[in-house]
Amino acid sequence: MIPTRSLASQAGFLKRSAEEFGRLTRYALNAEGMQTPTKAYTLFDFEDKSSVEGCKTMADRVVGGYSTASLDYEPGLPSANIPPHARFHGKISTKLPNNFRVDRTGYAAFRNQDRGYWLFGRLYWDLEAYSYLALRIKSDGRRYTVNIQTDSIVDTDIHQHRLYTRHHRVRGTPKPPSRNSTSSDSPEHTKEMYPRGLPEALGDAPPESTIISSSSSATTSGAPGWETVLLPLNSFVRTNFGYVVEPQTSIMRNRVKSVGIGLTDRIDGPFDLRIHKIWATNGMDELDAADDKRICGDDALPVDEGVRTGWAASKMHKKNTDDQQKSQTKKKGLEGLRSEWDD
């Protein structure tokens, strides 16, 4: 009898190892470890149906709630420049189950499944060399949150950032707390969740200091359309079960386990978010900008000038030149060693 499951598992292990070796080889050949990368690092490309199948959804139904969440693959429509993408949709319900232990419902989310192992252990995303998380999405205007989980000491820690878009708006009016419907917008609950005040990155209005590009508008601009949003990785807020925790720590960018999107605005009703691609970047390169123009039209982001002019390579070349000149004038012996230490 052939152990089919073992063979399948081994095939997946070998495939992941080969893909990671290939990525690291390209990284080394392009000398990206010696300069700021100008090429994007794709995490999810939802034009590939397997990327959708590699994700899992979550909702309050696991505790008896009534919210639903689905992540489906949607074929593209080339004639309308609509790319294949993932559709995150469902319905939020703040109705409480008949269980006195449950006092909060009304949430839904998705994220990638465990990435598994490769030849050198557990597989993580290494985003150490990147400044932004980019998402090309089509939003319905609800208050979505981007979630990043790393291999941190506290497994349940999640770094979060509001997914601000041109069509971002606050919909609905908070309801007074009741047995069958509760609100997270009450002053008491807000103070409990954010004892030091609501962090800018989780507020309703996108702070200009953390959001770049024209996606910084906090109001809707008409019918929703495709757009690309860049979120600075150093602006994500450390949370635990939705509560901001202290001390705040930076994301362990070299050991990212999962990336996903959640909806916790606790507004009853349907939701619908389309996601084309999620990637790490230091700015829009020409390839991504071309895709952006094709999909987003007038709302597309321009090529980042730093990427266009190759500022990273220029800076690295200047550093190498300076180091070479310095090495030619170095003193020998202990005096040279002392001067090298002082440098």
Describe this entry's structure for a reader.
With 343 residues, the protein is of the alpha+beta class. The protein folds into three domains: 1-35; 37-309, Galactose-binding lectin (Jelly Rolls, Sandwich), CATH 2.60.120; 310-343. It contains seven helices and 15 strands. It has helices spanning 4-29, 49-53, 187-193, 286-296, 305-308, 311-328, 333-342, and strands spanning 41-45, 55-59, 68-74, 85-92, 108-112, 117-118, 121-122, 132-138, 144-150, 157-162, 226-232, 237-240, 243-244, 256-263, 269-281. It has a seven-stranded antiparallel β-sheet with strand order 2-5-14-9-10-12-13. Strands 1, 3, 4, 8, 11 and 15 form a six-stranded antiparallel β-sheet that branches. A hairpin with a 6-residue loop joins strand 9 and strand 10 (157-162). Residues 1-8, 169-184, 209-224, 312-321 and 326-343 have low confidence and may be disordered.
